[in-house]
Design a protein that fits this description.
This protein is α+β, with helices and mostly antiparallel strands. 19% of the residues lie in helices and 42% in strands. It has an 18-stranded mixed sheet that branches. One of its GO terms (cellular component) is cytoplasm.
Length: 278
């Protein structure tokens, strides 16, 4: 008996233009697949994230995220891509709200009408904590930055990313990090950030080579920490962020520290659709 094909789309998240933002493969499962198969498919797509949806009931879905090398507990851009997929193809019973059961708990996404029949996706994510850097000294961070100057170092929880404040927007854009050193970090990866141009509140880049992602084009989960950090630093709860990767991306953020939540908003564009045949 032939195996049922698995429907998929590749969706660029946190952008309004094709081939920008962060691409994610979104696969809709009609039957259970084992973890080995899920990881093999993610490795085949070889994108920063491949996610898998399974309908639970109505507008509630199970959602799992895989990099080319492992499953992760939270991914912002692939959640936005999954939401865009469900809303665009009318696959959820509710036209403007879906709910996901994930390793990070229940996450919700809403469809927010925009201009010219387009729409934003609004995600409610748990806020990350930004704490004092827990390293013994700063020489390791300097090695990660290939000797580039920096102003502050922090750690994020629960991901244990190293968050580094650089002197300027240009310093973020021009950074050439040492990926071999970043692979040695005890946590997930390295975030660099700085104040941005007048159009945006701040900019950032994120490097995660130990998860098979040398540079994540636009990282939603990193912004769960960045939003908290810059909200405190700038004294404002609504922020517009620019991820300064080669593909680039824009995120609209709202921080509610009392409720420990970060609301992320962004657009997405479907660029491919097809079937996994095996």
């Amino acid at each position: 008996m032939a195996k049922a094909a698995v429907r998929y789309c590749v969706i660029d998240a946190f952008t309004d233009s094709a081939f920008k933002g962060n691409p994610a493969a979104v696969c809709l499962l009609e039957e259970e697949k084992d973890d080995e198969w899920l990881q093999a498919v993610a490795r085949e797509f070889n994108l920063s994230e491949t996610c898998f949806l399974t309908r639970l009931n109505g507008s509630r879905f199970a959602l799992r995220w895989f990099t080319p090398t492992r499953e992760v507990e939270l991914c912002g851009h692939a959640t936005l891509a999954a939401s865009h997929f469900l809303f665009s193809y009318g696959l959820a019973e509710e036209s403007d709200r879906v709910e996901f059961s994930t390793l990070s708990g229940t996450l919700t996404a809403r469809r927010i009408p925009s201009n010219n029949d387009r729409f934003l996706i609004q995600l409610h994510f748990p806020a990350s904590s930004v704490v004092e850097y827990n390293g013994d000294d700063t020489s390791y961070v300097s090695k990660c930055l290939n000797g580039a100057s920096f102003d502050e170092i922090h750690s994020t929880l629960p991901t244990q990313d190293i968050l580094v404040l650089l002197p300027s927007y240009d310093a973020v854009c021009k950074l050439e990090p040492n990926l071999d050193e970043i692979k040695k970090c005890s946590g997930r990866g390295l975030i660099v950030t700085a104040v941005a141009t007048s159009e945006f509140d701040f900019c950032s880049r994120f490097f995660c080579p130990k998860f098979g992602i040398n540079e994540d084009p636009v990282c939603g989960s990193a912004h769960c920490a960045l939003a908290v950090y810059w909200s405190r630093k700038l004294g404002k709860s609504h922020l517009i962020a620019y991820q300064a990767s080669a593909r680039s991306g824009v995120l609209y953020l709202d921080v509610d520290e009392e409720k420990s939540t970060v609301v992320l908003r962004g657009e997405a564009v479907t660029v491919m659709e097809g079937s996994v045949l095996v």
